[in-house]
Amino acid sequence: MELNSREMWTVIHGMVLGVIFLLAFSGALAEMWSLRPGITTAAGIKDRMKRLYVGFGAMAAATWLTVITGTYIVYPWYRAKLAGPQFVTCAGLELPSTKCSPRDFILSNVSGSTEGWHSFGMEWKEHVAWLAPLLATSAFLLVLYYGPRLVARPWLRNAVIVMLVAAFLAAVVAGAFGAFINKVAPIV
Amino acid sequence: MSTKTAPELAELEGLDLPARPDGPGAAFMLSAGIGCFVLGLFTTLDEASKAVDAFLAPWGPGGVGPLGGKVGLAVIAYVVSLAVLLAVWWKKDVNIKTWFWVSLVLGCLGVLMTFPLFFQIFAAEQMTSADRVYAWATATGEGLVAFMVTWLVSARLMEMVLPEPLAANTAMAVAGAIGALIVSVEGLRHSAQLRSAPTQPSP
User: Residue A112 has what DSSP assignment?
Assistant: First the structure.
């Protein structure tokens, strides 16, 4: 049972930070959804706000760490142009190698019709993922700024939920394509 | 104003909450919209222009390519717009609903421009610069005509059903939306026509 450094970073980027993000999102959404008037007392609201701050803060931090590790650590390994324009060194391979990067492997179509995983999947993933930290950070700042006042302002609470869910959807698109692409052409 | 609502709830009375203006809240929303829009804009521009691609490529560390420039500019736009908007709106009470909708439109445009099937329409190798300028200049002209006609007609119609200044603002918003839609649809249509047209041999 051993992981090399590239596999370890892929796990940190996709699984460790992804799990933290999902847990924080679930908690933040549930707390935000139930932050309504007439449900709890003043003491209950104060207690609930602490969980909201932690949940939103953790989600924002997790999205930043995920996109930074993904873009600046994992992505260069994916997109390295090792096989040349005709992908000669990818011929006959079943998986990417040190002479055929995952991008080369996918674009070479040596294991079936895989080109779309790069031209659509990776092209969308690498860009849309960066919407998540911007939206999650602004949602966190809104919760931090208004605090318990959100109880009395259902429209504003819904606006924060819209931003939270939009950040989640951006992360889901990026995460799902990341998982599929890593299945088709793992980083080695 | 919205800041007056907080103390009206019984469970908030014990928390001693001073009213807060909506300016900073609007700043948080709008800066996110601006960041998303800038990311989308540079994603599409990078696809459309080799000069933009060359400008964006050196931004990140080695191996990242133009993605480093796109995300770097988006984060800078987010942080700078947030700082500026907070400085301007810190103690002001703005209409946060309006700015939420503006942010939502910017965010949706950002998502659209990061969608591969959209930005790959503008791929630099598929059209010459002259063709692209022709397509989008024609579309802009058509959009301006649509904007002016819609503005004239909708201003008269809105006056009959809405009070001023809401009627004028609504007419302007409708005209702007129709104009933008016409520019987008016609720009894409002209681009598609030019790409499918046979190439003229040089004299």
Answer: S
